Amino acid sequence: MPAENRPLLDGIKVVELTTMVFGPAAGVVLSDFGADVIKVEPPGQGDLNRNWHKIAGLPISEMPYAFQMTNRNKKSVVLDLKTKEGHEALCRLAGDADVLITNYRLDAINRLKIDYDTLRALNPKLIYALATGYGEKGEEKDKPGYDTVCYWTRSGFESHIFPFDGWLSTFPFGAGDHPSAMTLYASIMSGLYQRQHTGKGCKVSTSLLANGAWSNSVMIQAQLANAKFRPKRPRDNAYNFISLNYKSKDGLLLKLTLVNSLRDWEPFCHAIKRTGFMADDRFSTPEKRIENMPTLIWEISNAFAEETMEYWLSRLTEYDIPHSKVFGYEEAAQDQQKIDNEIVVPLEHPEFGSMQTVSSPFQVSGFEKRIPAVAPELGEHTEEVLRELGYTEGEIKKYLTV
């Protein structure tokens, strides 16, 4: 196969000891680019995320969409790592792997003897990728960690966006895990790069705590610089009009984002048909706009209420004003811009038919991603993988009865 037609990560073997979203989401990016990803799951229910779509409050579907999203193009092997036989099989798998990913809790990693030192002794070239909730040090390193608490709450995000009149909802499932997984993917690729130069493996790691802090690092840096934070205000008395939601005549929400407000002020006034604002003593300068902000917000709100969303989308585009309609999930999933850029791509599911899925968020020129395939059934590839490891048919049968 010509080099330019091969998957980017063709020949890279990855062993996953992961659960839920953070670790598996990094593995799915590797699988998108052609790595052979073998997901090791415990007997019984396997990865908790296989059934997490059934949790009360999540969208209702018979399809395990949460598991599908982060486990396409992988193989599933069932091993009981608490047994001698299961641990031995895992060691064989890791013995010739390029990468091992785990987001098991630290005490479980040590108890199951799947720590870096143990596996490095078997395979000095292994890139051992560790994903944690709270990091590997400190009093909280052994606490259970999920993006809801480590990423969103501990970063300050939650307190920042908490509605003025009370908390109304929760963060979307996995919304902190997926960006954190990209950091884990980057750390894996950095490890592979250093191995290319040194011939030696290494441990790479990241945490939800670190990724939440990085995502909200501008505001945390403000605190570290002893900046004075402003008290929260309701929308109608916001500090600035430039990044608020406005309601159109047909009751839909539009998001405005005038990042370069000095440049965009006059075009914006033309766009909303309020050219009088430019000479109005209340709004003619940035200082006067700040002084009269509640009145300006009221006037702009009234302007947007005069026309439909379709009108404003056309009008603001014409005047090159940064904006977007506030999408619901149906619109977010059917967004033509995402389809055009292969962000949302086709998926043929053997049980649920033709549908679409979300691709990993980058491309590499000259290399095609794998066509998304269905996530594996629990233990679907146990027999195949054990046979490749040299197990006899009799030995394999013992594992299949676990």
TrEMBL record:
The residue ranges crossing the membrane are: none
UniProt-listed Pfam families: CoA_transf_3
- One term of GO molecular function: CoA-transferase activity
Keyword annotations for this protein, in alphabetical order, are: Transferase
PANTHER family recorded: SUCCINATE--HYDROXYMETHYLGLUTARATE COA-TRANSFERASE
Instruction: Indicate what this protein is called per its UniProt record.
Output: Carnitine dehydratase
Q: Which organism is it from?
A: OM182 bacterium MED-G28
Source organism phylogeny: Bacteria, Pseudomonadati, Pseudomonadota, Gammaproteobacteria, OMG group
